[in-house]
Amino acid sequence: MFRGHSQRHIDPKGRLMLPPEFREIILEKSPDGNIMITNFDDCVVAYPFQEWEQIENSFYKLNMANRQSRDFQRFFISGASMVSLDKQGRILIPPYLRSYADISREVVLAGVGRKFEIWDQARFEAQRKKMEQDFDSIMDSLAENGFELRL
After folding, report:
1. Alpha carbons 43 and 21: distance in angstroms, whole number
2. Which end of the chain has the least Cβ crowding within 10 Å, N or C?
3. Please, what is the Cα angle at 62 between 61 and 65, to 5 degrees?
4. Residue 83 has what pLDDT?
5. Helix and strand counts by DSSP (H, E) for the chain
6. 37-49 pLDDT, tens per residue?
7. CB 92 within 8 A of CB 13
8. Which CATH class, in words, describes the domain spanning 5-121?
């Protein structure tokens, strides 16, 4: 499970060094070091390949007569790219994904369970600040929808 967050630098070629704990999880789930990355929620999301296969399979359950379903599938699946860890533990983020997420040099990697997110640092900080401001109303909404957080 991916947890925590760390600040990183992306090099001019678009290569990003992953934290050792993220690399370990990737190699545990995918010994060849392959992961799938795609555009989602104003960032780049990354999944070990076996997790990605489950996501792709979930699209078979969607009603493709629905325009929003087709549009979302087109956006999410066609935006995906398989990348591999190199010998230094880096991945190459394609230009179109860097552009989508407005990624420049400073990035934040955020572990969020079965995936991790790659954020432009300024966007990440803005998102966290918004979450902090809306925290109580978000928690109330989650509780109203049956989510129980046991602290």
Report:
1. 20
2. C
3. 135
4. 98
5. 5, 8
6. 999 999 999 999 9
7. yes
8. alpha beta
Q: One-letter amino acid identity for 111?
A: G
Structure tokens at 107: 């990035």
Kindly report the average pLDDT of the chain as a whole number: 94
DSSP symbols for 33-98: -EEEEEEETTEEEEEEHHHHHHHHHHGGGS-TTSHHHHHHHHHHHHT-EEEE--TTSEEEPPHHHH
* Alpha carbon distance, N-terminus to C-terminus of the chain: 19
SS3 content of the chain, % helix, strand, coil (to 5): 45, 30, 30
SS3 141: helix
* Angle separating helix axes 20-29 and 49-58, nearest 10 degrees: 70
pLDDT in tens, 52-109: 999 999 988 988 899 999 999 999 999 999 999 999 999 999 999 999 999 999 999 9
pTM of the model: 0.91
Residues 132-139 have a mean pLDDT of: 90
Is the Cβ–Cβ distance between 1 and 114 less than 8 Å?
yes
Question: For residue 91, what are the CA distances in angstroms to 31, 63, 94?
Answer: 15, 34, 10
